[in-house]
Structure formats: C-alpha cells, structure tokens
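Hi Prof. W.,

I finally got the Acetyl-CoA C-acetyltransferase prediction working! I wasn't sure whether to trim anything, so I left the full sequence exactly as given:
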Amino acid sequence: MVAAPYPQRLQAARALHDASYDIVIGLAFSREYQRFLCRRLIPPFEEQIAQSGCRNTEWGAIFALYDHGCPLLKCRSAIEAEQIAAGAVVCAFRWIGAACPGSTKSENDDFCNTGREFTMEAYVYDHVRTPRGKGRPDGALHEITSVEMATQLLKALQSRNNLDTALLDDVIIGMAQPVGEQGGVLARAAVLQAGYAQTVAGQQIHRFCATGLDAVSLIAAQVHAGMIQAGIGGGVESMSRTVMGYDSGAWTSDPSVAYSNHYAPQGIGADLIATLDGFTREDVDRFAVESQRKAAHAWENGYFKNAIVPIRDVLGDVLLDHDEHMRPGTTVESLAKLKPAFEGFGKAGFEAVAKAKYPEIEELNYVHHGGNSSGIVDGAGLVLVGSKEFGEKAGLKPRGRIRSYANIGSEPMIMLTAPAAVSRKAIKAGGMTEKDIDLWELNEAFASVVMRFQQELDIPDDKINVNGGAIAMGHPLGATGAMLVGTVLDELERRDAETGLITLCAANGLGTAAIIERV
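And this is what came out:
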C-alpha cells in the first residue's frame, strides 16, 4: 500500500479531531443538534479519508465511530464522550505513523508533539491602544486615570466592531503596579464603566512587564481549552499617577529574600549584560538612535493609525493622539552628553552584588541612561480574542491566530535575559523553528537587552522591532505586551508576511512570549 502524501494525512487526522471535538461539545445541546453535527461533519470527513488514499482496519474502526448513528450520541456523559473522542484521535496518530508505511518518525513527531491539535483555535479579531503620554505630572495623560484609559479602549472595541458585548466571557487587564487606583480588579470596573453586558467577567493579573502579553495569552488559553468563546486581554499603566515599586514586596524589601535573589535594580542588570557581552556606550547609543528613527518613520507613514484611540477628557476634547515621548532628532552625539543613570546605585553597593554573582567581571561598565532605556509613559492596550464560532456570531472576520505562548524564569540578578529562552519555548510549543518567524518584537527595556537577544538568536536588524520600540515611544509597564501584539499584527498585514513573535523580559528574571500568525 502506498502512503498518501504527508500533508493529506495530516489534513485527514485534523479533520478527525475536529469532528470528535465538535460532537463532544454537541453533547451539551439537544439530540437534534447532535444529529445535525454528525450529518454536517461526517461527509467532509469521509471525503478526507478518500483523498488520503489510505484505508485499513484501524482507520475503518475510526470511521465506524461516526457511521450509522455515531456511538458518541449514546454516551451517558461528556467524560465518556471525551474518552471515545480521545481514543479516536490516538488511533488517527497510530494510523499516520504505522498504518501508512510512507510516513517517518520525524513527520509524526512534528504532528503529535506540537501541543496544538487537541485545542480550539484562538483568533485575534481586533486590537486597540492609547497613545503613550509622558509619565510625569506635565504629561498629556496625567489627568486620566487607568480605569478611564481602559474604559475608552473598551468603548472603542465595541463601537468599531458593532460588538454585542454579551458574547464576551471575560476581560483580563493587568498592570505592573496593581495598587491604589490601579487595584480593585480594575478590569471589572472598566467593563461596567464602558457599558458592557454585566455578564462579562473581569480579572486583574500581575507579572511585572510581562503582564499585558500574559493577559492576552490567558484569554487565548481559555479559548483554546474551550472554556470561553471570547474575551479581551491587555494592560494599563499610569506611570505618572502611581509609583514604581509600590508592589514589589519581599523581593526587594525583605533583606533575606533580596539576598537569596541577588536583588539589584534592573539598570544594574542591563549594564551587567553590556559588561559581559562587550557592548560599549557608543553601541547602545547607536541602537537607541535607530529606535528613534524607526518610530518616527512609522508614525510619519501612518503605520499605527489603525490601532490608536485618541484619549479624550471629560468634555470630549482630544488630549493626546500620538506618542508623546519620541525624540526623532536624537543623535549619538546628543546622547553622549547624558550621564550614566545607574552608576550611583552601583557605587552604593549593587556593583558588589553583581560581582558576587559574576566574579569574572572586574568593573561594571555603566552605559545606560534615559536615552537608551525604555521611557516612562502612561498608556493602555487591549486585544479582542475569540473562537471561530464567536466570530461567526459577532459577524467579525479574524485577522490573526495566536499559535502558542510560553512563560519562563531566568537568572534573577540580571533579570533581563529570559527573552531568548522563552522565545525558543514558544517556538517549540508551536511546532515551529526560528526560521518560521518573519518578524520579532522584543520590548526595548534597555538597549543591551535587545542586542543580546539578537546575537543569541542571530536576528538581523530588519526583522526585529522594525517600527521602533520602547526606547523611542516609551514602556507603560503593564500595557506594553498587549500593544506589541497589535504592532506585530499590523506590520505582518502591511508586509504581507505570515508569522510574528512577541516577547518581553520582566522583573525578577521572568519572561513571556507569544506567536501570532495571520489567517
């Protein structure tokens, strides 16, 4: 027997799994709906078998599950149905690997180890963000609370999509400082303030700078698991109205915990990367100038216009419609005049902490300052994620698919080196290779962070942060990750490219990543 081509076998097995899952879901509905599912699903499935050119006893047994009345309809519980469906899928994988002699182990590993085939798809339908305002009392957004920023974005998502908000299950909004006016499950307050259906739940999360992307990934995970059909994930941060470090807790304030964590301010970690990797002051300054150039070019050409929601005051007047932090006239020469920002911390004792952890260094090279580090700004970003069924009910067309996501911990003293490892983890979870990524987006916490990442993964300049980053436009801590999802999706569409990876480092050695692909 000659095996069918590998793609056809994959297609047939995926069709089998989709059929199994849909019929299990159908158990929650009427018998008539279950029979409708069988009538709808079996014919295309039968066609896939015929196209595959591979029939055998195991394959025939799988098809028998659906033929002549479908035994799944006789199940007494969803658990029993899931067991039958799972057995069918296992048989399908055995069929791919054994029943068709033309397949190879590597082919089967590619299919069976992706971790994706047993899930529903999570699609991105829309995304919005605020402009970034300077994070200080004279910044344009200082008078706007975090809940108000989130509320205005929620209203924008509803109005521009004519969205029936009763179709949504959850809204997850995170921030890096969940204290004061940013506490109290801000997401739920914003949902009600925006006039959404009261059935829409709200959740607040916190993973330092990884928070915004994590919120999007958590919504996607619930959709993938079939627990919800749609939700909104994102983040908000008013850095002009809250104080960085208010929520740090034992990690920084308890001496015994700080000692075992080798705690030092992030800027010390950034300078330590530069010291270990040999990045000079001119190197990191040139990177910062390029970030400013890219961001100015993107704004001049309207690359962000579809994502930006101008923020308005109580009278409805526009307070800000552009990223306020940018300095497009920045040069290497102008940056050279700035003094290192973290040398004082180092000489006060944190350089000794760095040397204790990394005894191979003789002196710390202080190269980072306000001009080559992420800017302090106010802002928010949200992403609408849902299943295929949600899109059909809402009358929306998906723009992208969240393929995979991952989190990881890394060495906590530097605390900025997780992006490479977590990106590889997300790539593996998506059943991909690094060559499959068309665009990379890494939050520009500090210049040395992105420079090390590029070196470790061998990423050319024209594939990473192609529209500038947080050095130019600013980093509203809890919101940036969600903003970057939209930035990547818009740029993929503009370039007619397929796949992008978003990643961020976060305090205490944390890192997160997600892969998005166009549909």
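The chain has 19 helices and twelve strands. Does that look reasonable to you?

Thanks,
D.
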